[in-house]
Design a protein that fits this description.
Number of helices: 8
CATH superfamily of the largest domain: Response regulator
Distance between the termini: 56 Å
Number of domains: 2
Strand content: 15-25%
CATH class of the largest domain: Alpha Beta
Strand order of the largest sheet: 2-1-3-4-5
Shape: globular
CATH architecture of the largest domain: 3-Layer(aba) Sandwich
Structural class: alpha/beta
CATH topology of the largest domain: Rossmann fold
Radius of gyration: 18 Å
Length: 238
Amino acid sequence: MAKHIGSVAIVDDEENLRETVAYALRREGYHVDLYRDGQHAWERLESELPDVAVLDILMPRMDGLELCRKLRGQSELLPIIFLTSKDEEFDRVLGLELGADDYLCKPFAMRELVARIKVLFRRLALAGANADTDGEEVVTLGPLSLDMRRYQATWKDTPLSLTVTEFMLLHALTRRPGHVKSRARLMEECYPHDAYVSERTIDSHVKRLRKKFGHIDPDFDEIDTVYGLGYRYREHQS
């Protein structure tokens, strides 16, 4: 029996899918809690968050999008994966804009879902290891500061609430200010162990990043879209 390595909440109204996913994850050593719909999950998760949440979008009583909103109100760092049908493009993109870290289209191979969950746990472990590191590791670029130990960002001394994926994307953009990074390159830097995400995922995360900066500073325009190429963080003269 593998040792317990983290907790995963599976929220889906299909009982067979819930049980199949739970069996696969428990074999990997994860603790798994199952919920039949968003309301059922929220009644428990409101007071006790899992380490990772896997949410179906279309569910009775409370759908996955609304549950994602509520979970994000509790924690920006909770990794969230959406399960969607192939024809739910609008909902899938909206889910990413709400703060989901990833998505998977049904039907999917169980090993693929397990692989994505492992990626999210590796990021959590990396963030925890950085937080325990002695000494300061703060990257400063103009009014932007990135605390690499705690995965925390501030703009003009105001904290930003970023998901782990958003923080990694922002860090990737600011590594070489003024240089254009393709979506493929950003996927490699934000998902170093994962080959599954799409370019649309990066676009959604960039949109959410801009929105969060805009709440703090309506004049924020540091992230440029270079059409046909990718994105860049503006270079400032020292």
